[in-house]
Amino acid sequence: MATTQLTVTVTCEESESLADAARRTGRTTDDLIREAIGRVIRNVGSANRLSPEERRAKIQRARGMWKDHPNPPDVRALRESWRNRAIDP
Fold it and tell me: Tens of pLDDT along 25-79?
């Protein structure tokens, strides 16, 4: 498998915590970082693997899910919070 090198900037506290986790688990920090990246790809990236038909079916199943709720969420506020979280996690 071809690989590429990636540089990631972390805080001193994150670096120390990562080194501690590596020592406790007997693994390398590189290995822990690769595992974390794999988790993100599996959890976040999985939505991109849906076919257009599967995506459409999911949307259709969700349709009307808030219609009988006594206090439905403000969709604009939800979207804004998601946008802010994507920019500054």
Answer: 999 999 999 999 988 887 776 656 778 888 889 888 988 888 888 888 888 888 8
Residue-wise DSSP of 53-86: HHHHHHHHHHTTTTTT-SS---HHHHHHHHHHHH
64 conformational bin, left if phi > 0, alpha if psi -120 to 50, beta if neither: left
Burial of 33 (0-12, 13-18, 19+ CB in 10 A): middle
With 0.85 as the threshold, say if the pTM is over it: no
Domain extents in the chain: 12-65
- Within 10 angstroms of residue 28's Cβ, the number of other Cβ atoms is 10
What span, in angstroms and rounded, lies between the C-alpha atoms of 50 and 39?
Answer: 18
The CB density around residue 32, as the number of other CB atoms within 10 Å, is: 15
Higher pLDDT, 34 or 89: 34
